[in-house]
Amino acid sequence: MGKKIKFFQSVHFKIAMVFVLLLLISVEIIGAIFIRELEKNTITSFEDTMNSQVELLAANLSGELSANEAESDAALKRMVISFAKNDIFEVRVVDDKGIVRATSDVNQQSVIGQKNDIAALNDFTEKRHEEEDKDSGRRVYINVQQIKSQTGDAVIGGLYVKSDIESRYNEVSDTAMIFFTASMIAMAISLGVAMLVARTITKPIGEMQQQAQRVAQGDYSGVLEVHGQDELGQLAQTFNELSVRVEDSQETLEAERHRLDSVLSHMTDGVIATDRRGKVIIINDKATMLLGSPEENSVGKSILDLLGIQEDYTLRELLEGHSEKMITIDNLKDEQTVLQADFAMIRRESGFISGLVCVLHDVTEQEKNERERREFVSNVSHELRTPLTSMRSYLEALADGAWEDPKIAPKFLNVSLVEADRMIKMINDLLNLSRMDSQRSPLELELVNLNELVNYVIERFEMMIKSENRNYTIKKEFTQRSIWLDIDPDKIIQVLDNLMNNALKYSPDGGQITCRLLETHNNVIISISDQGMGIPKKDVRRVFDRFFRVDKARSRAMGGSGLGLAISKEVITDHGGTIWAESVEGKGSTFYVSLPYEEIEGDEWD
Ligand code: ADP
């Protein structure tokens, strides 16, 4: 917001002031010249009039002064009194002996017949000048004139006239006063007019200034009123057009930014944009998530630090490289995220490099799958090579002549058969797994009584133990209620077979195997515990991995392929359940299978 302009600083005031000052200067100059001229004219004309009148009087007095003294004094007196009107203070007549013969001053009548006491009149020389009257302090005009004899050759006396010139000056100053008052009134009126005129200029300017402020603050709602078609009117019109343009481009910009924002935030890849120095300016949610660092901390940070690659790359290499880079990030859960980062320069049309864009793609899963695939191929090759080499050596021995030996030959053939069977079993297991992986063996669901199904499996094992003369005992702890579940019975039987088999395989003869069947709120849990060798803690989770075996030699000797639990896990996961193991090394292991279970209302199958 622009600060408020003081009235004295405003254009409004300045324009009015210029008007008034111009007027003042012209009035002053005109006034000065006028008053001077007026004064000159007034005073000169007064003096001229006075001079000519005095001359005339002197001529008139000449006759009287030369006549008989007693008569003439009265006539003189009459003449001077009739002459001494309004502007004349005193008229005095002195004869050639310096005796006052007449004066118009009523208070001075006593000087008549006395010696003249006015110095100016003593020598009868003509004098015309202005002086200050000692008594009244006013300016007076003194006029001394010789009175000549009628023949005109002798000076017979003097005439002294003191007239009031002050009143002329006063007239002039009165006129000056009137002029001054008039000019003051004119000034006041013109000030008012100037203010009004200035206002018509500054009002639209003020409105424009306010509108410009609003536009600067992003408020485009106001429209300027166009006063007339002059320059200011056109300016206001242009301003209105301008603010519409600004609004339009602002809106376009906003829309563009929103679009960019929503594209960025809905992208499945992380995007980071930096400035020329590699400082992060934009980072989308996905990138923040992938990198596991909050956005506030990321903006402004160097991209090298953010990605943790400051030791491997320089900004220059990223800018020039164009290549993709693999970055491994350790996230909070101690899991590694592998990101593929593609870098590209942001270039202006001028070729100026204004920054860098980095697209992050989460390839953790891909990398893991790739690693697993490689491991799997190597595992399969390895698993097949062992039985094949042993078969080959037996077959070689037979071919070398052992086939003729009736004692060795059947034994060797038998071993070869066992190895071949083992390979077939493994291949079958692998095919099973692969079918399940590619969803090619859909579950064939049936509503089954789980209690019966588990019982059936256990009974089969009990019979097998009996027939093989072994001493395992199988203990059952089942819930009283029958549990009906939608499952694929063949596959669940396969899982249970595998778990029971493992329990027997990995525990000594004579041990007890406990099978439990229990229900929780919305799951049923089957557990199979043995009293065998157990599984080391670090391996408990890994026993479900393909080909994983705690003790390879022993497992193989027992005919295991390392795929049983992997298949079991697939089956249970397909059913929406979970499988896990708990084990104490040397004491025994428990394998749990949990399946989702919803109790059927009314239990009509009971
Ligand atoms: P295998 O055919 O080798 O038994 P599995 O996938 O069934 O393959 O089992 C994987 C590994 O898990 C076994 O090699 C064994 O080391 C371990 N294991 C499985 N069940 C048990 C158990 N009940 N007690 C101890 N170890 C077990």
Automatic annotation (TrEMBL):
Recorded GO cellular component terms are: plasma membrane
Q: Which CDD domains does this chain map to?
A: HAMP, HATPase, HisKA, PAS
Domain Histidine kinase positions: 379-599
How would you classify this enzyme at the top EC level? transferase
Location in or out of the cell: Membrane
Which residue ranges does the record assign to the HAMP domain? 199-251
Q: What is its main location?
A: membrane
Q: Which UniProt keywords apply?
A: Kinase, Membrane, Phosphoprotein, Transferase, Transmembrane, Transmembrane helix, Two-component regulatory system
Q: Which residues form the PAS domain?
A: 256-320
The record, for Pfam families, names: Cache_WalK, HAMP, HATPase_c, HisKA, PAS
Matches recorded under NCBIfam families: HK_WalK, sensory_box
Query: This chain belongs to which protein, by name?
Result: histidine kinase
What species was this sequence derived from? Vagococcus coleopterorum
Q: Which gene encodes it?
A: walK
